[in-house]
Amino acid sequence: MQTQLYEIALTWQGADMAEAAENRSQKPQCFQEIILRLQNYWASKGCAVLQPYDMEVGAGTFHPATTLRALGSKAWAAAYVQPSRRPTDGRYGENPNRLQHYYQYQVIIKPSPPDLQELYLGSLRAIGIDDALHDIRFVEDDWESPTLGAWGLGWEVWCDGMEVSQFTYFQQVGGHDCKPVSGELTYGLERLAMYVLGVDHVMDMPFNAPDAPIPLKYGDVFRQTEQEYSRWNFDQADTDTLLQHFKDAEAECQRILSAPATDSAGRSIIMAHPAYDQCIKASHLFNLLDARGVISVTERQAYIGRVRALAKMCADAFVQTEAGGA
Amino acid sequence: MADLLIELFSEEIPARMQAGASDALKKLVTDGLVEAGLTYAHAAAFATPRRLVLAVQGLSDHSPTLREERRGPKVGAPEKAIEGFLRSTGLSMDDLSIQDDKKGQVYIATVTTEGRAAPVIVAEVLERTIRNFPWPKSMRWGAGSLRWVRPLHSILCILSREDGAQMVPLDVDGIVSGDTTRGHRFMAPDAFSVTNFEDYAAKLKRAKVILDPAERADHIWNEASQMAFAQGLDLVEDKGLLAEVAGLVEWPVVLMGRIEEQFLDLPPEVLQTSMKEHQKFFSVRDPKSGQIVGFVTVANRETADQGATILAGNQKVLAARLSDAKFFWDNDLRLVSDVGLEGMGAGLSDVTFHNKLGSQADRIERIAALAKEIAPLVGADADMAEQAARVAKADLRSGMVGEFPELQGVMGRYYALRGGYAPEVADACRDHYSPLGPSDDVPTAPVTVAVALADKLDTLTGFWAIDEKPTGSKDPFALRRAALGVIRLVLGSQSTARFSFVYAASVKGFETQYRSQYGERLRDYAYDAFQSFRNLEDTLNHLSAAGNEFSIVAKMLRDGDLKEVKSDERLFQTLVERAIDLSAGRYADSLLSLSSDLLAFFHDRLKVYLRDQGIRHDVIDACLAMPGNDDLTLLVKRAEALSDLLKTDDGENLLQGFKRANNILSQAEEKDGVEYSFGPDPKLADTGEERALFAALDTAEAAITPAMQAEDFARAMQAMAGLRAPIDAFFEAVQINTDNQIVRRNRLNLLHRIRATCLQVADLTKVSG
Lengths: 326, 769
Fold this sequence. Notes:
The structure holds 2 protein chains of 2 kinds. Chain A is α+β, with helices and mostly antiparallel strands. Chain A is built from 10 helices and 9 strands. Helices cover 43% and strands 18% of the residues of chain A. In chain A, strands 1, 2, 3, 4, 5, 6, 7, 8 and 9 form a 9-stranded mixed sheet that branches. In chain A, β5 (143-145) and β6 (150-159) form a beta hairpin. In chain A, α8 (239-258) packs antiparallel against α9, α8 packs parallel to α10 (297-318) and α9 (272-291) runs antiparallel to α10. The relative contact order of chain A is 0.15. In chain B, α12 runs antiparallel to α13 (423-431). The mean pLDDT of chain B is 90. Chain B contains 28 helices and 18 strands. Chain B is of the alpha+beta class. Chains A and B meet through β4, β6 and β7 of A and α8 of B.
């Protein structure tokens, strides 16, 4: 046993850095390589490469690095991977394209640079999509998030007829006009990677290098969790508890924001981020309740309105803070 | 004279907005130029995904210098008045002249507006156009505040003459105009400068951009047709899709692929819808089998591998989409085989149609009952119409319609056929939503007509019942469209159904549901109360306190003879049932009282409809005033006959003859305060003209009566028109107002006979002219 581990470690050390660099100009071999190339590309273009937000969110947009930083006058440039959860999309790991947990790659730059489309196309080249061979198209698709009170205009980007990214110029967030305007790029990583790697079922996609000592497929990492979460999301999540959590998050968000701006030591601190965490929680709890099928069509609008009210309050608070340009 | 070339170069403009935007650019700029005093010979606008272009030929070099004389105050007027005049004209005292006027001498200012050079005007007009452009949706970007459909990158604006081009300087929020543009995003991205429109179009083509959308569309259509033809196949025409695809590419490259064998048994509508909606593919049909067997996709570039990679990618995406569709199709067919079409629709009881009008299942129940009533009126088999109505909306619960809502009805037909229903029923499933738009075909198959009518009448009855009528421009439930649909269905089937009858039948369905739903709740509640109190007085008190819905029982029982009741449970039951009857009856009456309001709504829609057919408003009003105006077919027959006749000499004769008689009669009636409606006596006629008029009326009536019975209004009115000459001759020769009161009365009664005769088809007093 001991020997075996040692041998593996040796093989790891044997991986040639120069060879890896050379590979960069070729087709990626696995899921993580696509992520790494995007990270390197956007780092090289000057984005702060952030880490995922440590809470359950439905999309990369919910990360405060996008939602809150899109507000106010301060310049900003960030890129990050965001694990995203959409409970209703769970298919017990059986559907080739649908997952209740997946990854988005998110880029946000404020103000949107004039060459953002060119920068984006550069990122596609970086992950091996050669625009001399493929048909890349910007097809009208306006974005709206009723829960965030946000909207923007832009496109879905097609590669040979497949949607590979969402490209949006934010116009409003939390009811506030975005001035300056942020440019936002969202890549659905699994779908994009499946296309680049030529894989038909997400679970068959190589996660790490196929020639690694322990080659792992996407399914080795996520099939079981998809099953477990699908069961929990659809059948087992306790709806009374979820409803209570929703109310708690809503109340806590409101309480945090109604606290006086000055603390007991006389420091002026507006708690926009802690309040926004509660808003994110409420949003995810709503998604879980929705997956459990306990929200009727008419109630749905009311819940969305409640989350939007929280998002708006958080946006109002954030623009009072230093990062919000106050 | 110069030619103007403008190009507004931006990030990708939504395809659906391009045509409107190039029209707006042309209109705003040319209107602005003309308003500023320039003239031009010709203008043309173009759009590609990344540019809006305007080419104006023969633009004048200057606007004309204008001289205008303005009259000012009198000489010697107060200083302030003269100062004000100088300020408003921008002149000084020395510039004014003095002229003689009726009232004395006045100051005259000659204001000269210098003509301006074309470049100045062009820059001004273009900047205004850009800043006020009517995009359906626009946005800001970066740190700027300019709005455009997507970020605007450059402005090309040049005036060209034979001796060269002149740049028109312009700076819109930091975007400085120039004489350069760029080619295709991927194939020729470098900038180049141009000198005139021909140079521009030619260089663009070299840079892999076809400027004219019509040329791109033609290219796509021709290439695609030829490719299909080469394989013995037909391209399925779709003008909307062609225009959209032409707006997605600057350099169209047409690629054709085959649909995989495993998807070929999907219905053609499913293949077409999926390919069009998701992929913007054209469908390719095999003329021998009629099947959709292939697709055409249009790429935006040439590649070294002749599009092989692009086609393979598209093919893969299509396969994923069609796998979904096939999954739905197979599941739906299995469901129909297992539980039948009604079984498929079982879940409709969980779907709310409107929270005040119950579920879709409730609605289907009403429509089925109504379709059965309407069927005989449109020549359909009643049972078949009822059956069709029961299953017509079952496909709303199918997987396929869940995915592609636009296939509602179409899928219903397939599933009905698979479920073993008669073809008439299957067709009703597909067509009962029609007609939707004013130009849609109107179904004529009797079973379909019965279901379609029932569907729309139920909608109208329901929304009238809950007082959700259209107001102004708001019609969220598309009730005007439903009413127009009813009108076109009734006219199309030449049905003589009376609205009052059909509406009563529709109300019946609502009443039945009210009775069962309300009755059930009431019975449960009343019996529970009776069980727990075990005495009538306490039960009644409790029911009274329960609020409106249940207190009606209490009130009935109190109003009845209580001594008779004792605590007899059976009697209590009888009274509860009577209360339900009473309540349901009141509910039905309240709905029936809306009948005339809804009929008036139909009449309004009918007026709009007939006006579009060229029938005048007053003509329709004249026919609406007649009895039986709730038989729409009869009403339209009258209106058409009257409208046609009024275009002829006969019509003019009828109207003039009638009006002459009617005016004199009305005046006499008003003066005398009586109505002259006794039959006139021919024996009292003492002139030849008077006797001739009697004879003419006899002849006319002999012709009119059978014509009216046959509802041949044209023939009836022709007979009436024949009365003009005898009426004119009568008035020429006879004085109505004579001293002999008997003769006078008889003559007025004769006029009344003319009026009564002429009013049989329409109320001619309402016709103008």
